Amino acid sequence: MDSRLEAVRDTVLARNPGEKEFHQAVIEVFESLGPVHDRHPEFLEGAVLERLCEPERQIIFRVPWTDDAGRVHVNRGFRVEFNSALGPYKGGLRFHPSVYLGIVKFLGFEQIFKNALTGMPIGGGKGGSDFDPRGRSDAEIMRFCQSFMTELYRHIGEYTDVPAGDIGVGGREIGYLFGQYKRITNRYESGVLTGKGISWGGSLVRPEATGYGTVIFAQEMLKTRGASFDGQRVVVSGSGNVAIHAIAKAQSLGATVVACSDSAGYIVDEAGIDVALLSQIKEVERGRLTDYAARRPGASHVAGGSVWDVTGTVALPCATQNELDGDAAAKLVSNGLIAVAEGANMPSTREAVSVFQDAGILFGPGKAANAGGVATSALEMQQNASRDSWSFEHTEQRLTEIMVGIHDRCAATAEEYGAPGNYVVGANIGGFVKVADAMLAQGLI
Ligand code: NDP
Question: Is the CB of 123 inside a 6 Å radius of any atom of ligand 1?
Fold first, then answer.
């Protein structure tokens, strides 16, 4: 790391004790930024990094709710409004028992750069709760969402902060959240949340966008080596929103996706994952991957273990942070891997990223590769603002153009700063310079 940035890093780490995922995300960005500060001394003089690492606002609140038996539960809600230099705060809500301030801040910090890379007018934020939706009835989910929004509503708005989904928050939850927002405010403010249902202000392609976008980004990386998805053997982690649509898109481009996972294990299906069956089990029945193996001839389920033990030429981690460590990376490389694109946020540990880069593997970091989700959320906001709704083909075309643009900007920036082919450097510098310029232009904020 550039020595001028070390003192800033040390201050950020000391001011935010115990937030290890936030530390990891900050260090990973700082390691790319030395050359930028050679060219832009004004960023140092203006203490841009110090300001960027301190969220503009952090909200932590109590979320009381009752289960179906009438028992009272209390969870903790978060919204971190990190940076609004480029537009209203934008980023998802995560409902998962592992959520605490350090996770929300890592996600919000990453979101600043990701959103800048899309070229859309959106700032960075993130939120969520340590609520565990697993095994809860629809009525319990609804009561939780209503209680969560009863506090959150006063902090958000189409010109202020626009949440969306993430782990544990899909169309069902966005519906309950939107309903409660409307009820409290007496406003049909479509632009306050994205990921809405198609008949009430949502955008076509939003559910598919993150997974599709990740595959489009990977395809652009493969092209730089004269390759494509056609004929690749692909391994995916996760089996939620991002994973399902990444599998569908990769297979539509001629790949065979042979494995995917959830938190209990993974399935191997040498014939290629049956996306319709997977979607029926995970999205409609809210079942487990064991159900897939039971219903699909030739597929097998491995309880526990690591999906990265499965041999593949392309890996798409689409589950959660730090799910792919240095050992798993080394195993993938020795098994013939050529490319990785992160559908999840920070799924590869720093050691894993080093293994990939040292081995010359094409590596697309999440803040670039999974930006298709938030980009399409911004397209949803555009449609809401103009009270319009675009066709699937038009919206998918916009998504494709945006992802190709992000790929090309990352590649060009990496080249410009002396690190050709390094998409981590390209994404970090590309996003940072845009935000830093806007922050300086807007004065000391
Ligand atoms: P979902 O809740 O739809 O799916 C998450 C998947 O990951 C599930 O298969 C889940 O398994 C698995 N998973 C979650 N936590 C863990 C864990 N601790 N260990 C092992 N497996 C786990 O979430 P999404 O698909 O929306 O999100 C996946 C990733 O993509 C996240 O990192 C998210 O931040 C990122 N992302 C999502 C975007 C979106 O538009 N949704 C946009 C950009 C990034 P199980 O069901 O067993 O819990």
Answer: no
